[in-house]
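Hi L.,

You mentioned the student needs an example of a multi-chain input paired with its predicted structure. This one should do, with 1031 residues in total across all chains.
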Amino acid sequence: MDKAFAARRRRDLMVAAGLVIIAALLPLFVRNVYIQNIMVLTLMYTALSQSWNILSGYCGQISLGHSLYFGLGAYTTALLFTKLGVLPWFGMLGGGIVSALIAMALGYPCFRLRGHYFVIATIVIAETTLLLFQNWEFAGAALGIDIPIRRDSWLTFQFARSKLPYFYFALALAAVAWFVTWWLEDSRWGYWWRAVKDNPDAAESLGVVVFNSKMGAAAVSAFLVAVGGSFYAQFVSYIDPDSVMGFQFSLLMALPAVLGGIGTLWGPMLGAVILIPLTELTRSYVGGSGRGVDLIVYGTLIVLISLVRPQGLVGLFAPRRKVAAP
Amino acid sequence: MTITRRDVLLGATATALVPMAARAETADVAIGVVYPFSGANAQQGVDAQKAYETALDVINKDYDFDLPLAKGEGLPGLGGAKVRLVFADHQSDPQKGRAEAERLITQEKVSAVIGTYQSAVAVTVSQICERYQTPFVSADNSSPSLHRRGLKFYFRPAPHDEMYSTAMFDFLDAMKEKGSKIETLSLFHEDTIFGTDSGNAQAKLAGERGYKIAADIKYRANSPSLSAEVQQLKAANADVLMPSSYTTDGILLVKTMAELGYRPNAILAQDAGFSEKALYDAVGDKLEGLISRGTFSLDLAQKRPMVGKINAMFKERSGKDLNDLTSRQFIGLIILADAINRAKSTDGDKIREAMAATDISGEQTIMPWRRVKFDESGQNNNADPVLLQYVGGKFVTVYPPQAAVAEAIWPMK
Amino acid sequence: MTAETIIQSLASGLLMGLLYGLIAAGLALIFGLMDVVNFAHGEFLMIAMYATFFLFAFFALDPLLAAPLVAASLFVLGAMVYLLVVRFAMRAKANAGMVQIFSTFGLAIVMRGLAQYFFTPDYRSVTHSWLGGKTVSVAGVFLPEPQLVGALVSIAAFAALYFFIHRTDFGRALEATREDAGAVALVGIDKNRVFALGWGLGAALVGLAGAIMATFFYIYPDVGASFALIAYVTVALGGFGSVFGAFAGGIIVGLVEAATALALPPSLKSIGIYAVYLLVVFIRPRGLFGSI
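Structure written out for the whole complex:
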């Protein structure tokens, strides 16, 4: 292996460890629950975007239907807990596994599609599932599921006022998603994906193995996003089809990666750290006017970043970034 | 409001932006108002804002109305303190509603929260209020499940969908007794919480009272076309069409009905879009004789002149008459402010106690209600719905008899 | 369910489908020209409907008369969007597809925000027009005039588009630019001018659709969202790169939607469209008539 590449990877790992420690200490200084709430959402979107990035960034299979897995995770957890009393931790695992299996089942026919055909397929599959949940009486249909509030407990992962347990869970999830990405970068799968991206002809010779690796990427990506969905269900303690499976989630997962740098290790985190606080603050402080100013600010920013830094903001921070050939 | 140095550092951007309401004079009582101010339902938020500002005016200034807090300025129980509203945008998203409610309580130090238009958002906002022991007034949410969750800080002065639907069926029974032929019903409802709840309640009542459901059509909200749906309504040709639709779908429904030559015998609407000015501006000419349920009627101005005066105040702000939603928002804030006044405190528990002890006679409101008194679940069961008929470009109350000013015209043409 | 219900539903579905085709035509043209999917397409439609409404409200201009004006203003809007935004998005060397998606998506949000800012979020309607509320009845089947005229305009627009692309010099320039932008530069065709005209033309087609839609549909800042996904599916079903595909795609989408609403609860009617799309692309990965 290339020495510079190995050194870079060690450095990445150390930077990540440092960032996790700094993030873990943040709540000691930030007691304001409103800001803590923004931090939880930022970490959650970091994790989601990082997971999305595995399939859409590294594999190049752009999915705008990941809300499907987010919703499946949320619904599996909430249904198991409210109907059968299964603790959310098992629901999380269950939701992740269900989503991973579905991602592979869908990947099989969908990976044959290219470009926009694939993107639209992911959108309509997620929309179809949304409509089915919207009409599924057992799952509460449009009424959704209201997760009953009980005592604060790690067992049921419910905390009435404290944001800290959610904060640390979201931090752990983001760290895991980052680590999986880091690990994949240097795996056989990572090499194949880069090879295919750089040279489409290589795809032909690698055919079957690449196809299988994409299925694997879809499964990993869906699993992590579903865990994020389970987390969201616990965090908000109410879910309904539109608020966990809507198209907007698919976009919100993709946006941080796109703005930060798609297919890069640090892009999703950077994008989320900028985008999520901005969204929340514009809504809170200019959104009450009823005049759509928050939308104008938010949309303009997206246009500007995608035009001015099409390769993502990550390049600004790490000019040395150069992926070594395997 | 106290601002620590840390808050200043972290919230620098936030405070640099336009603050939503004038910052505190010490004695103010802040109330959080959570509505959709952007996105597909922004108009509802904008209208609500006008209704709350009208109520605020009545509370903070001196008016000669027989309404709690109208006379004199501010809240006498708190030494004449003024009420201040802090508006927040939930964009119709339960998660954002939750975050905004939490921000209002912890950052803006509001003493109570009122909202939310969408029932889905009311679920999370009321949960957060419960967690922070802050009273939540569900001014205009009509989902019956909301008050059945064992929340202590939840209060709904207005009726919910089951009460509304019951009134609608009482009316149908009464019309039947008078000799109108009413045997079959067509239910037409959208697929979000509002339509689903309404459709379920109506289907259940129809079964109990022996009406046959000729068609039960659930459609996707904001569909690009309702042709196939209307065709099925037309084929079913029931004696009464009962739509539960928001403004957009309501407009499209009526237009599509005209285009496909479907003229129902009678329309009995579950409010929502059918109380909106925009709908009647668009298709009012096709709705002569439509009956909608509601909790408010401008007819009341004949008996209670203050209703007309308050309507004029609202109209000056918004260019619209008070309707079913805006009247509930107006009275919701009055009831909440009255409780804060009686609590003589901005403490959540004390306000809750005062809210629970609320007993205002219907005469002292702008609503056709018997009284305002909450049961243990926080629901006011004395809020009687009314049925209004659209005649000659205006709504007249036709039911219940004690509120009616005219006989219902049946069938509609 | 009677035969009458089925025939009426399918007739309505066909008319609506032709209208979907017209809405999607501009999207198909722009995509066929430069492989760019315009995620602000629904917002173009929204602006067109507002333009029609304001011409009606302030100048009492009937939507049919307003249609050419609306199409012309949308032409300008489309060309400007290309020159001010998309031109730069296309320069992106890395992940060009995502940059285009998100720059036009951001634009869509801005357009909605601006509409809310300037027009308020209130629901508007063109209350009376030559077409609005009128219906032709043929053997018991009702054909609403707005949709009927919309269908005719749709057919005419596609015929004109076909003629334009295949029979005029400019159309050939479009084709040539699409196939090899580098080579056309050598023969003196300005790529940016061709693309700007292409965007203008695409937007003008949405303008026509918006003017007709305004006669029977409500208007508010988010109205485009109801049609955007259908337009994308219509184009993809027909096949990217084929303008005729969008025409066929529209008809199929309209008919499938109507048929699904008869067979399933109407709240699920979009599922029929989505299922047909997936079925088609799983069998033919480039849509029905696609070349890309």
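You could point out the following to them. Chain C has a mean pLDDT of 89. The beta strands of chain C are 135-138, 141-144.

Best wishes,
N.
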